[in-house]
Amino acid sequence: MDASQFELCLGKAEDTPEVTTMLAALGVTKKLKLGSEGYVRLKLASQGLLLSFVPEDPKSSRLVFSGVQFYSDVEEGFTTFAGALPGGLTFSDSPAQARAKLGKPTEIMKDFRLDHWIADGRQLTVRYTKPLDGIAHVLRGFPRKDRK
Questions:
Q1: Per residue of the chain (148 residues), what is the pLDDT tens digit?
Q2: Of 12, 29, 83, 87, whose Cβ has the fewest other Cβ atoms within 10 Å?
Q3: How far apart are CA 137 and CA 70, in angstroms?
Q4: Ramachandran class of 129: left when φ > 0, alpha when ψ lies in -120 to 50, beta otherwise
Q5: Distance CA 106, CA 61 (A)
Q6: Is the sign of the CA dihedral 43, 49, 50, 51 positive or negative?
Q7: Among the listed residues 43, 44, 35, the one whose alpha carbon sits nearest the alpha carbon of residue 63
Q8: What is d(CA 142, CA 90) in angstroms, rounded to the nearest whole number?
Q9: Which of 142, 139, 144 is nearest to 11 (CA)?
């Protein structure tokens, strides 16, 4: 799978054909259960992925696919995601290379080695390695409510 397949599922409910097909392709067979935190994080470390689901609305247990994180093996416990990353990024991209591919970030958080891009109601966040010579992980999803 590559980033474009996850992109098609963002914002869709867990029981839609797109999301059920995505989960089956990833080998997920258990029904997702909302935890006390108010969301579901599905860690697929051997595939370099972390999937996030949130309730459709505050009073619903129906979950919506809200984000995906693509990890490299510099993040402890993860195997590098093998598919294509969003925006033509590669895990070997420096901040300058990522910005050349994606344009000027909406927000740069130097202390956390993070760049955020927000466009079309979606967020792309890149966390860089230390030193800044590659990408540790990429998040694609919806921006937090405190970001514009």
A1: 899 999 999 999 999 999 999 999 999 988 898 888 889 999 999 999 999 999 998 888 899 999 999 999 999 999 999 999 999 999 999 999 999 999 999 999 999 999 999 998 999 999 999 999 999 999 999 986 644 4
A2: 29
A3: 5
A4: beta
A5: 33
A6: negative
A7: 35
A8: 21
A9: 142
Q: Are 2 and 89 in contact (CB under 8 A)?
A: no
Residue with tokens 């514009």: 148
Task: Dump strand ranges (E) for the chain.
Answer: 40-44, 49-55, 63-71, 107-109, 114-119, 122-128, 135-141
Specify the residue for token string 């860089």: 128
